[in-house]
Amino acid sequence: MAAPFELTDDSVVVVIGTGAGGGVLANELAQKGVSVVALEAGGRYLPEDYINDEWESFGQLAWLDARSTSGDWRVARDFSGLPAWIVKAVGGTTTHWAGASLRIQDHEWKAKTNYGDVAGANLLDWPIDPREMDDYYTKAENKLGVTRTGGRAGLPGNNNYKVFEAGAKALGYTEVHTGRMAINSAEYDDRLACQQTGFCFQGCKWGAKWSAAYTDIPNGEATGNLEVRERAHVLKIEHDDSGKVTGVLYADADGNQHMQMARVVCVAGNSIESPRLLLNSASSMYPDGLANSSGQVGRNYMRHMTGSVYAVFDKPVKMWRGTTMAGIIQDEARHDPSRGFVGGYEFETLSLGLPFMAAFLDPGGWGREFTTALDSYENMAGMWIVGEDMPQETNRVTLNHDLKDQYGMPAPNVHFDDHPNDVAMRKHAYQQGMAIYDAVGATRTFPTPPYPSTHNLGTNRMSENPRDGVVNKHGQTHDIANLFVSDGSQFTTGAAENPTLTIVALAIRQADHIAAELGRGNL
Amino acid sequence: MTVTSQKSPMTRRELLSRSAAAGAAFVIGSGYVAGNSAAWAMEVEHLEPASMATLIQMARDIYPHDHVADEFYAAAVKGYDSAESAPMVAAGIAALNAAAAGKGFASYIDTGWERDRVDILRGMENSAFFQTVRGGLVTGLYNQKAVWPLFGYEGESFSQGGYIDRGFDDINWI
User: Fold this and answer.
1) A72/A60 Cα distance (integer angstroms)
2) How far apart are the first and last CA of chain B?
3) pLDDT-based confidence at residue B36 (cuts at 50, 70, 90)
4) Cα–Cα distances in Å, from A156 out to A370, A440, A453?
5) What is the greatest pairwise CA distance in chain A?
6) Contact A343, A335 (CB under 8 A)
7) Which of A57, A155, A205, A371 to mutate to test binding with chain B, by most B CBs within 10 Å of its CB?
8) How far apart are CA B77 and CA B71, in angstroms?
9) Residue B28 pLDDT grade (very low, low, confident, very high; cuts 50, 70, 90)
10) Residue B11 above 60 pLDDT?
11) pLDDT per residue over A237-292, tens digit each?
């Protein structure tokens, strides 16, 4: 049941975006009795709407507004208008995510302390004690129903996993299992168990994978305290003469603009849109954008060190059958500079359907070197590599004043250059990944380049000192007390783990903080 | 890669068209292109039939799959037969034929060996025409549902209840 709030109601908390950060925050606040208006740029799609066809689903869910790219990353060459593969819909990218739910390791919370000075890297420790996060991680795992936590069983291994596991064990890896996944291995929270259907990236038609779209969002709405306005694209955050934010200007589905007043504004539009919105909200009082006295808004863009390894065998694998990403090797996730880089990385099983394999195996590739790989599609196994990349000040989201979106607002440009540490880590990961498959008889392996980013992080980072970042340990901006950041752009460093579980845990934690501060009259 | 003899009588124009495309795998008629096995035929309205045949051959040379029949390549490039695309394609094919002539071949489609045609394509790999055709094929060819079974790909499984009881873990050689 939606709770309609007036545009002029300045007692509400406005949450911008309804993904892992905003969707969870909106529900958690609503459960505590806080009135929330959540503004979501995309439409509402539920399991019955999801399409198990890669390109058709991409057209349904992907964020395809105008964007540009620059830098030496290959995405800028192969997918120049598509820096990120993320979702515009109620529930955000939790419709698309694979479900891998890993806690950040203790040493990763304090990257600067543990890695030391890395030339060219803008490393910083998170202003959070890892022990503070333990309970929030447990709450997040229980919310998402993460397998191999809280007594929940692991998922069964599919064909792709069996090849991966055998190769890993042949190589001597020991931390190998079907992952800690927000995909039900048994019925949980009124949601079905995984039916091994594949197409996890296209939205789970069984609802077996956690998504805010059909959990936190309707749960929050059921309290009567949350109103989700879909197809409401926020253009600008407004403030008063004292500098506090007062509301947001948004365009509805018909392009008509409205001003929603607010007591508190929480920005959770993903690490590209969130800094873009702060920058696009520049005013005479804040000429460099909101909350940007540090100059760090949009900087330190991280996307994880990624890549894939696919391999062809002399016999069928049929990797597309079953859960897309239920398999992990964690032996390389440790920090061990003797490998030639700081930080670590994970191997995770991954499969793409034939249409996406053709697009992503070797973008731009053609001729028989390329097509003979696809000829063996049925005999292919695949894995994804995800590791910690170095924050760099020059990797950043800026406004491209030469490119406007459908509302006439400057589009974001995403600039990214690999750091030498990223390059060294990727080289190591490719070698190990190919060795895993070689160990079980691969006849050919493919070190596949990174896809458009799904893990977009760091562009409004947390810092102890207001000079070093945009938000404090609660995601509250250093500059403006009633303006918060609630998504992955808060990340001080990226760590090696898929970020969603941490985004959810931080959102639960932030809801506690905001509700308490509201109760104390501090906001 | 030869044109088979056609049993039914041909019009003079068809014959002339065909002779112009000697060496190709296609029958090029008046207003149409067909597979030489007569398994498929495609009417063309805005492009010269010989240009469409060349485009189909180019598509196969960019993404050659010997177990995928010409009709799928034809379907992948059919969209270029439009008033909007025809001038771009005609100019691209003319450039392709000029490059073939520069290497001593009568035309692109009359270049007998794939390696020679690929050489010609490599020489124009960075052209807008090549990149448009190649980029379009990524979806035009591989997103045809009828092509998927030829690669063993099964597409969606939700309608059949997923693979939980249908072999998600049936690998037997690992």
Assistant:
1) 30
2) 41
3) confident
4) 32, 20, 28
5) 70
6) yes
7) A371
8) 10
9) confident
10) no
11) 999 999 999 999 999 999 999 999 999 999 999 999 999 999 999 999 999 999 99
Q: Which residue has the tokens 């391999």?
A: A311
For residue A129, the 8-state DSSP code is -
Best CA proximity match to B77, nearest among B47, B107, B100: B47
CB neighbour class for A314 (10 Å; exposed up to 12, middle 13-18, buried from 19): exposed
Rounded Cα–Cα distance for residues B110 and A327 (Å): 50
Q: Give dist(CA B57, CA B100) in Å, integer.
A: 14
C-beta neighbour count of B18 within 10 angstroms: 19
Contact A52 B63 (CB under 8 A): no
Distances (CA, A) of A364 to A209, B137, B138: 33, 11, 9
Angstrom CA distances, A114 to A58, A305, A392, stand at 40, 19, 17
Interface size between A and B, measured as CB pairs under 8 A? 111
What single letter denotes the amino acid at residue A213? A
Which residue, chain included where needed, has tokens 């039900």? A184
Q: Which helix (H) or strand (E) holds A140?
A: helix A130-144
pLDDT tens by residue, A196-252: 999 999 999 999 999 999 999 999 999 999 999 999 999 999 999 999 999 999 999
Whether A371 sits inside 8 A of B156 (CB atoms) is: no
In the predicted structure, residue B14 carries a pLDDT above the cut 70? no
Q: Tell me: pLDDT of B1 over 60.
A: no
Contacts of A369 in chain B (CB under 8 A): none
For residue range A14-47, list pLDDT tens digits in order: 999 999 999 999 999 999 999 999 999 999 999 9
Q: What is residue B12's predicted lDDT score, i.e. its pLDDT?
A: 43
Residue of B66, B137, B174 to mutate for A, most A C-beta atoms under 10 A: B174
Distance from CA of A205 to the nearest CA of B (A): 8
Across the interface, whether the CB atoms of B169 and A368 are under 8 A apart is answered no
Residues A402-440: b if buried by 16+ CB within 10 A, e if exposed: eeebeeebbbbbbbbebbebbebbbebbbebbbbbbbeb
Give the pLDDT band (50/70/90) at residue B25: confident
ipTM (interface pTM)? 0.94
DSSP secondary structure, A251-296, as one string: E-TTS-EEEEE-SEEEE-SHHHHHHHHHHHT--SSSTT-TT-TTS-
Q: Which strand ranges, in their side-by-side order, compose the sheet holding A233-239?
A: A233-239, A245-251, A257-261
Burial of A38-71, coded b for 16+ CB within 10 Å and e otherwise, reads bbbbbebbbbeebbbbbbebbebbbbebebbbbb
- Phi, psi dihedrals of residue B61, rounded to the nearest 5°: -70, -30
Instruction: Tell me the whole-structure pTM to 2 decimals.
Output: 0.95
pLDDT at B8 over 70: no
Low-confidence ranges of chain A (pLDDT < 50): 1
Q: Which residue of chain A has the CA closest to B167?
A: A321
Contact present, A289 and A281 (Cβ < 8 Å):
yes
Distance from the first to the final alpha carbon of chain A: 27
CA torsion sign, A15 to A20 to A25 to A28? positive
Q: What is the pLDDT of residue B29?
A: 84
Which residue type occupies A52? N
Q: With contact defined as beta carbons under 8 Å apart, do B29 and B49 qualify? A: yes
